[in-house]
Amino acid sequence: MSVLLVRHIEEELRRSFEGLIDLSDVAENAPKEQRDAQFLSRALAAYVAQHLSKCSPEEAAGFVIDGRDDNGIDAIAIDDDKPHVWLIQAKWVKAGDGAIDKETTLKLKDGLDLLLTVEYEAFNGRFAKLADRVDKALGNPEVRISLVLAVLGNAKMDPVVERPLLAAKEYVNAGAKPEDEILDIKRFGLQDIHKTIRAKSAPEKINLSVTLDGSGRLQEPYLAYYGTVSVGQVARWYDQFEGNLFEQNIRKSLGLTGVNRSLVETLVSRPRDFWYFNNGITVLCDKVRPTVQYVISDNGPREYKLEGASVVNGAQTVAAISEGLRRAPDVAGAARVWIRLISLEDCPEGFGDQITRATNTQNQVARRDLAALDEVQVRLREEFSWALSRTYVIKGGDGPPDPDHGCTNVEAAEALACTHARPELTVQAKTSGDTLWEREGGNIYDQVFPKKISVHRVWRAVLFNRMVGATLDEEIDRLEGITARVAEHGRALITHIVFHTFDQTGINEPQSSWEDRVLPGVKERTIEVLAWLAHHAEAMGGYAGNTFKNPEKCRSLASSVAASLKGRTATPELQVKTRSARAVGVLVDAGVIMEGSVLELKISGEEQAGIEAWVAEDQRRGRAAWVNSRSKPLIWEADGIAYSPTALVAKVRLTALGKKSAVQGTKYWYLNGRSLVELAEHIRNAE
Question: pLDDT by residue (tens digit) across 588-602?
């Protein structure tokens, strides 16, 4: 495990301080390993300086004085305002098993003595650039000084090793009360440093004030308060913090589902009944503290301060309250809602997660939502942020990020299933996808997301899956027959086969050139695999839509296509429509659709409910205006941009569901009750 933590720390140091650390005193012809170790050691000191002083990477790099005449101090971080000075000694140990020795503590103590006696000339030129700031801070009677030891290993010290620092602390703080002490000692071990890196991507804690009416308290076994709260208070929370308010919940607001629309209607038409019709809100808090406000009133309101607050049940209620007040503030403002405030301060570990799982029952909870609490998903979200500078969305209700800047865990699960060694997992990726999150029986989830899966493996699988999908999107409108059906229904298996024709060396490594080596060949290979898969699927017989739902058939087809690709025989030809046969071309040539006619999106099957709920939030998402263009005949009302039918359906699926796959877009856009495919077929028959 330590090797993995060291790797994460190294990636963070290189990302933050590459090109900033002064290595001018290291010979340019020195072995790469030597220069690398020197960089990482100084970058570690700079990182600790940045973490403690909350400065920029550039300023932190300037705090590094490591080198000849550093007197045991690798970096001096300074906060001029507090003021505070941190004297940092950092040890980079690639194996992650380092320790602090007595020589280190003695040198650090000697460096402290030189600073306290203003013997600045004993230090090197790097220190000279900081001397004025150090002197000003140390001359301030309010100054605080910290001796900081950071090591990639165990930061605990043997009493003999720590003795010089404890002696320094005793004589600097002589006679001072604990709160008035000037000098303290801080230690950072491997786990501590790794934790600070993970924390960089974690959302900030939310602190709230809430006033309850009819307040009560539950003291045993764990502290909780309950009562009613005005909806205006709840709406202000949502307006201020939005999605972060639900950080510990398994999902965020789902938008206007049937349940939520009913809540809004109650608020704007029968606000005084809202309390009776609603299950209320549960808030988990790191701490809950009653204030003295209203304390003299026995039965009146009470105010509470909440630290680290998160709504773990009632996210849909909170979103509905915000919407209801937006629509009718004077009417809805009369409503009140039941609320529970649960303090986790003295609860056993994991109790908060148990509450979250047990209380979510108002809207149907999918397995994917429950997985938002899983440590693998939380880790990937953090590592997407700090290792890739991208977003990884793990909660239902959060929209997918821009494709260039991240993905949802739904898209990641599909990509990992498609690129897994077992072709039968493509069956789960093709269908609703909910079974990918199954943790019972065959435990598919742990196969898709093994505990130690690399964040680089996940992102590269997503990129690969997208490229195969984009290729099929480009091809599908010109295909017909078995080739078209395989392109539409067999996308997951195509991705699997294409992926396993490439060498995967380096896919888990951050410095690997995997993308440059593999992705340029994906388009050509996808078309080749499509041709062979259509050939073997036709020989197998049966309806393509059912073929790719059968694990045994998927295994057989994957094996047959792999053998054909190795056989060096000529690739079968794709079944391609003639230009005049394409639906859009037929309709444009016939001129049967007037410019400006409004078409409606109609999705059927397993994706219908999800897309309809998304369209319900903004009806423009389900409409497009026709223009007589062969390439981009649809102007989407949602953004005013022209699309082909296929590209627009693909955009809708990606935005609404976080999924991308090849579809025949002309099947899903309707005018007067007929799809574009049906309208084109009618014209062909008439001709």
Answer: 888 889 888 999 999
Name the residue with tokens 């600045």: 120
Distance CA 663, CA 669 (A): 12
Rounded to the nearest angstrom, the gap between the alpha carbon of residue 60 and the centroid of all alpha carbons in its chain is 27
pLDDT of residue 351: 78
638 secondary structure, DSSP code: T
The structural domains of the chain, with segments of one domain joined by +, span 2-199, 208-365, 376-566, 579-686
With beta carbons less than 8 A apart as the criterion, state whether 409 and 371 touch.
Answer: yes
CB distance 674 to 682 below 8 Å: yes
| Residues lower than pLDDT 50 in the chain | 250-259, 361-365, 579-580
3-state class (DSSP) for residue 281 = strand
Query: C-alpha distances in angstroms, 51 versus 47, 66, 148, 294, 524?
Result: 6, 18, 12, 41, 47
DSSP letter for 189, please.
-
SS3 538: helix
What pLDDT score was predicted for residue 256? 44
DSSP bridge partners of 336: 230
Q: Which residue has the tokens 């899956």?
A: 465
Structure tokens at 165: 């620092």
* Predicted pLDDT of residue 370: 61
Q: Is the dihedral of CA 493, 497, 502, 507 positive or negative?
A: positive
DSSP string, 477-491: TTB-HHHHHHHHH-H
Q: What's the confidence (pLDDT) of residue 364?
A: 44
The answer to whether the beta carbons of residues 659 and 466 sit under 8 Å apart is no
Bridge-partner residues for 225, per DSSP?
217, 341
Distant-in-sequence, close-in-space partners of 238: CB < 8 Å, separation ≥ 6: 245, 318, 319, 321, 322
Rg of the chain over Cα atoms, rounded to whole angstroms, equals: 31
State the burial class of residue 13 (Cβ atoms within 10 Å of its Cβ: 0-12, 13-18, 19+): buried
Q: Coil, strand, or helix at residue 82?
A: coil
Q: Is 208 left (phi over 0), alpha (psi -120 to 50) or beta?
A: beta
DSSP 87-146: EEEEE--TTS-B---HHHHHHHHHHHHHHHTT-GGGS-HHHHTTHHHHHHHHTSTT-EEE
How many C-beta neighbours within 10 Å does residue 253 have? 26
What span, in angstroms and rounded, lies between the C-alpha atoms of 34 and 47? Answer: 20
> Cis peptide leading into 178, omega within 30 of 0?
no
Contact predicate 540/557, CB 8 Å: yes
CB 78 within 8 A of CB 63: yes
Residue in the structure block whose two tokens are 């890739």: 388
Q: How far apart are the first and last CA of the chain?
A: 70
DSSP single-letter state for residue 395: S
Separation between Cα atoms, residue 419 and residue 410, nearest integer Å? 14
User: What's the rounded Cα separation, in Å, for the pair 366 and 469?
Assistant: 25
User: Length of the chain, please?
Assistant: 687
| 661 burial type by CB count under 10 A (0-12 exposed, 13-18 middle, 19+ buried) | buried
How far, rounded to the nearest angstrom, does the alpha carbon of residue 572 sit from its chain's CA centroid? 42
Please name every residue paired with 305 in a beta bridge, in sequence order, or none if there are none. 209, 289
What letter would DSSP give residue 290? E
> Please, which residues bridge with residue 289 across strands?
305
Contacts for 608 with CB less than 8 Å, ≥ 6 apart? none
Asked if the 2-199 domain carries CATH number 3.40.50, the reply is no
Helix 455-476 / helix 645-657 crossing angle, nearest 10 deg: 150
Q: Is the dihedral of CA 59, 65, 66, 67 positive or negative?
A: positive
